[in-house]
Amino acid sequence: MKLARVFGGIATGILITSAAWAQAFPHKPVTVVVPFVPGGSSDATMRALSIKLGENLGQPVILENKPGVNGTLGVGLALRAPADGYTLTIGSVGTYAISPQLIKAVKWDPLKDVDMLGIPVRTVNVIVVTPSFPANTLPELLDYMKKNPGKVSFANSGEGSTDHLTSMLLWQKTGVAGLNVAYKGGGAALTDVMAGHANVLITNLSVLLAQIKAGRLKAIAVTAENRIAELPNVPTVAESGVKGLDVYSWQGIAAPKGLSQPVRDKITSALVATLKDPSVVKSLEQGGFEVVSLNSTQAQALLQSEIQRWKTVIDVAGVRAE
Fold first, then answer.
1. Which pLDDT value is given to residue 35?
2. 124-222 in CATH: which number?
3. How confident is the model at residue 186 (pLDDT cuts 50, 70, 90)?
4. Which residue among 22, 147, 214, 233 is least crowded, i.e. fewest CB within 10 A of its CB?
């Protein structure tokens, strides 16, 4: 009986401690590691969320930019922090689902070490060509590639990037291939396509929209399930005859694995409330993002499916990171 009372007391103490911890969290600022330089999609997403998220948590949310190794360096640093909710990170599909498969130096596992808390936004990709390029539709582009094998250049932001792998997926789905041209970053790829030094680019709407509107690029298809409001006259890839090329670049907020349920609940509840705020939604949409607000379960499921999807593309194409 004494032993039972001892164990009962321990269990009660654990419950009280857990409840007290949940009530106390957060008692200091929460840091979000952004694994890219300021100005990118992950950074823009977190800056749009941070002030209101801090208000909903009751403590400031501080951003720390830790760029390097395609975003995997900053995520790795965040994952080495205690799983107490005070250090979070944000990353893209490339950061979580692609780069860990390509870069041997990555020592963390996206399924074993990452606690996905939610995916607030995604961005559709657009297939664009230089204005002087003869193709005006995706079928015309594919036909031109068949007639000119290996001569149509596809620019991308680097070997193993999402824009590179989306091009590889297009080639695998259609059986035609272009010339892969990898740049040291998306800015250089975009500049060369606009200048006519490369023919095709597949990347985020948020990066391309202003250039498309200005006539400096010609949009021929979007990698979405449905046509998008920003480009209502541009068909989807499925409408253009290519199935299985619905590709989005999403942003996921995560913590080190092992976050307690009470702390997780506080963070996810604050994130949901933040994504319902009209001013936050407006800011994100103006930046070219679609607010999807996937919860932790949905985010984890998407991560698993994306890892498998891009593993297949990587293996078939024989892609190796630089």
1. 93
2. 3.40.190.10
3. confident
4. 233
105 by DSSP, 3-state: which? Answer: coil
Note whether 29-122+249-317 and 124-222 share their fold: yes
Six-digit token pair at 22?
Answer: 């949940």
DSSP string, 173-237: HHS---EEEE-SSHHHHHHHHHTTSS-EEEEEHHHHHHHHHTTSSEEEEE-SSS--TTSTTSPBT
pLDDT band per the 50, 70, 90 thresholds, residue 8 = low
Percent of the chain at pLDDT exceeding 70: 92
Residue 71 per-residue DSSP state: G
Site of tokens 């498998």: 308
Top-tier CATH class for 29-122+249-317: alpha beta
Composition of the chain by helix, strand, coil, percent to 5: 45, 20, 35
Decide: helix, strand or coil at residue 203. Answer: strand
Return d(Cα 56, Cα 276) in angstroms, integer.
Answer: 11
**At a CB cut-off of 8 Å and minimum separation 6, what does 212 contact?**
126, 128, 218, 219, 231
Asked whether residue 191 carries a pLDDT value surpassing 90, the answer given is: yes
For residue 236, what is the DSSP state? B
In this structure, is the dihedral angle defined by the CA atoms of residues 302, 306, 307 and 309, taken in order, positive or negative?
positive
| pTM of the entire predicted model | 0.86
Mean pLDDT of 282-310: 95
Query: How far apart are alpha carbons 307 and 295 in whole angstroms?
Result: 18
Domains of the chain, residue spans: 29-122+249-317, 124-222
Residues 41 and 206: beta-carbon distance below 8 Å: yes
CA-nearest of 90, 84, 56 to 272 is: 56
Burial of 297 (0-12, 13-18, 19+ CB in 10 A): exposed
Residue 29: predicted pLDDT: 98
CA distances for 60 relative to 42, 49, 53, 109, 191, angstroms: 19, 11, 8, 29, 38
Residue 258 identity (one-letter amino acid): G
Using one digit for the tens of pLDDT, what is the confidence trace for 230-256?
999 999 999 999 999 999 999 999 999
